[in-house]
């Protein structure tokens, strides 16, 4: 089954605007160097797939997005926007089991398909577990974020994933170059270790008109 992004936005229209935006100070301005060229020339049409749930092999790769895009014949790129502490929004705090507004480690990147911005993906971690570790360093974690988590002794137990459609924040609209009135689809995936410790919360904000969401059952080993 595939969920059409426009249909999702319409289905959630009555409740979406009241959802938590999970926004903080680092997200109040657009990504440097992104807005001007695309707005003047017009944003090309591109549609990519985001599987729900994502394939375990993709989550264990160097980049979930790049692995998915390569199978679709799309040229993928990633740009790191922010690495550092920031206040946790309500849903992220709940998933990490900290109080709303508590400082957490955020790793935020912009994902592009054929040079068009399509997603903002932010990984959130508890500072008491990951502060001062290689995950708190600038840049991408090599060979992968999953390997970095496991190197610190965490093993995957289970995950919970939710999807909503809502209006974009100012930061999301500017960074994703969204036209007036377009919504986003927000996927929040919370990963827990074998001892039920909240290890990794991934928030993916997708430009609604640039995605379809195939839904299927995934068998086999899973990853954070």
Description:
The protein has helices at 5-11, 35-41, 56-59, 64-71, 90-96, 127-130, 145-151, 170-175; strands at 2-4, 48-49, 76-87, 103-113, 116-126, 156-166, 184-193, 198-207, 211-214. With 224 residues, it is an alpha+beta fold. The protein has one domain (2-18, 45-214): 3-Layer(aba) Sandwich (Chorismate lyase), CATH 3.40.1410.10. β4 (103-113) and β5 (116-126) form a beta hairpin.
Describe this structure in a few short sentences.
This protein has 224 residues and is α+β, with helices and mostly antiparallel strands. It has helices spanning 5-11, 35-41, 56-59, 64-71, 90-96, 127-130, 145-151, 170-175, and strands at residues 2-4, 48-49, 76-87, 103-113, 116-126, 156-166, 184-193, 198-207, 211-214. The chain has a single domain, classed as Chorismate lyase (3-Layer(aba) Sandwich).
Topology, please?
Elements: E1 2-4, H1 5-11, H2 35-41, E2 48-49, H3 56-59, H4 64-71, E3 76-87, H5 90-96, E4 103-113, E5 116-126, H6 127-130, H7 145-151, E6 156-166, H8 170-175, E7 184-193, E8 198-207, E9 211-214
Parallel strand pairs: 2-9
Antiparallel strand pairs: 1-9, 3-4, 4-5, 5-8, 6-7, 7-8
CATH architecture: 3-Layer(aba) Sandwich
Query: Residue share in helices?
Result: 10-25%
CATH level-3 fold name: Chorismate lyase
Shape: globular
Radius of gyration equals 17 Å
Q: What number of structural domains do the residues give?
A: 1
- Read across the widest sheet, the strand sequence of neighbours is 3-4-5-8-7-6
Helix/strand order: EHHEHHEHEEHHEHEEE
Q: What oligomerization state is this entry in?
A: single chain
Looking at CATH, the homologous superfamily is Chorismate lyase-like
Kindly report how far apart the N and C termini lie. Answer: 24 Å
Number of helices: 8
Low-confidence stretches: 10-26, 29-41
**Overall average residue pLDDT:** 81
- The total beta strand count reads 9
Classify the beta-strand content into a percent band. 25-35%
């Amino acid at each position: 089954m595939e969920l059409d992004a426009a249909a999702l936005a319409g289905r959630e229209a009555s409740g979406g605007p009241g959802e938590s935006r999970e926004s903080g100070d680092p997200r109040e301005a657009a990504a440097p160097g992104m807005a001007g060229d695309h707005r003047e020339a017009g944003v090309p049409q591109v549609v990519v797939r985001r599987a729900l749930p994502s394939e375990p092999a993709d989550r264990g790769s160097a980049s979930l997005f790049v692995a998915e895009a390569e199978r679709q014949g799309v040229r993928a790129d990633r740009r790191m926007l922010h690495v550092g502490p920031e206040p946790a929004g309500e849903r992220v705090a709940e998933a990490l089991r900290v109080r709303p507004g508590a400082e957490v480690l955020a790793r935020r990147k912009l994902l592009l398909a054929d040079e068009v911005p399509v997603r903002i993906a932010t990984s959130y971690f508890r500072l008491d577990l990951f502060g001062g570790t290689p995950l708190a360093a600038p840049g991408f974690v090599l060979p992968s974020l999953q390997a970095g988590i496991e190197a610190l002794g965490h093993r995957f137990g289970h995950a919970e994933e939710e999807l909503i459609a809502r209006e974009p924040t100012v930061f999301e609209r500017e960074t994703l170059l969204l036209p007036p009135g377009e919504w986003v689809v927000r996927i929040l995936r919370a990963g827990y270790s074998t001892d039920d410790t909240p290890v990794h919360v991934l928030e993916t904000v997708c430009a609604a008109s640039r995605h379809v969401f195939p839904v299927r059952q995934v068998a086999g080993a899973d990853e954070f």
